[in-house]
Structure formats: structure tokens, C-alpha cells
């Protein structure tokens, strides 16, 4: 994320305010985006048409009222689909408006996003069943509206494009992903493991283990 270009669909980010590129969770320079009561915009498009998944790495520095991770919509509460933190707390939630009729649910207090820590968060929708995951673990599911297959014009990361700056994120975001289709639990776990410190360490240890075993076999053959 050292630029605002979408490497897959060409839906490049633009506009927005109060953001900067910062080190990611592996201390790689300019690979994550810090919003200091900021946001970025996404172009109009048909982003959602039935089943979907949204994933992101987030590092919340301060709780903000209704902090948005992803926001897609056509105006206030009009076909909006919102992946967010609930009110000004640490609970992850999903709200889906089918036209102006909403459904929403949130992860319980037992699964919270603490300040100044990296978390992998994900939400999936399969039919009318929505599920929330934190750090590769299933947290909660519930019944959701199904987003209509339409063009949405007010799409943002960090806040709703229609709200004032007081509801803009104070957080670092990285590896924001939107999938067509619902990822499985194993898919979510793989996303987390590959992108986490533990996952990198496991892969490294596996490579060392593999190398040492091959070396021992070769030595024994000699």
C-alpha cells in the first residue's frame, strides 16, 4: 500500500484527507495507511452483488464514533453496506441496507479490538448469513439483508463519505480486501496466518525444518 492503486480491479483510491503512508506491522516503510481523522474515497461501481467478503489489518489508535473500515452506499442509509466499529467502542460490526431497510449485528464484548495492537478482521456474507472473524477465529454470525446489485456512488475507507471529520478514523489500515463470494473459515485462517508474525515464523521454521531434514538425509546417504 505504498500508493493508492488497486492492483486487481483498477478501482484506485482518490480524494480524501488527513492520511499518510506509514510502516506496516513488519516495519516495512510506507506499506500501510495512517488515517488521522482521515479517509479515502473509492470510485463509483458495482462492488457488491450477493455473497461477499471483506478483510483488513487494522491498528486502532483511538476509538471513533462509528469508525468505518469499508463504506459503500448511495447517500445516507441508502443501500449502504458498512464494515465498522460499533459506536465508539471496540466491537466489530456489519450493517447492510437493502434500499433503506437495515440489518446489523456486532461482535460481542468478549471479542474486542484493543488500542495500539494489530488485528486481522473479516466479515463474510453467504446468502443471508453474515459472519465476523477476528485474528482468524470465528466470533459471531447472524442474519443479514442481501445487498442489491447496483452501482454505489459514495464509497469510502475510514468513514462514511457523508459524515463530518469527527467520525473519521484514527487508525492504521493495511491489506484492505474485498472479495466476491464468501470466504470459508479455512480461507480466513490462511489470510490471518500468512499475514501475521506467527504465520511468518511458522513458515520460516518449516523451511528450516525441511532444510535440516534434507541435509540429514543427504549426510546419511553419504
How would you portray this structure in words?
The chain has a single domain (14-221), classed as Jelly Rolls (Sandwich). A hairpin with an 8-residue loop joins strand 4 and strand 5. The longest helix has 25 residues, at 197-221. The chain has helices at residues 185-195, 197-221, and strands at 14-22, 32-42, 52-62, 68-72, 81-85, 92-98, 101-106, 118-126, 129-134, 137-143, 155-157, 169-180. Strands 1, 2, 3, 4, 5, 6, 7, 8, 9, 10, 11 and 12 form a 12-stranded antiparallel β-sheet that branches. Residues 199-216 have low confidence and may be disordered. Helices cover 16% and strands 41% of the residues. It has 2 helices and 12 strands.
SSE layout and pairing:
Elements: E1 14-22, E2 32-42, E3 52-62, E4 68-72, E5 81-85, E6 92-98, E7 101-106, E8 118-126, E9 129-134, E10 137-143, E11 155-157, E12 169-180, H1 185-195, H2 197-221
Antiparallel strand pairs: 1-2, 2-11, 2-12, 3-8, 3-12, 4-5, 4-11, 5-6, 6-7, 8-9, 9-10
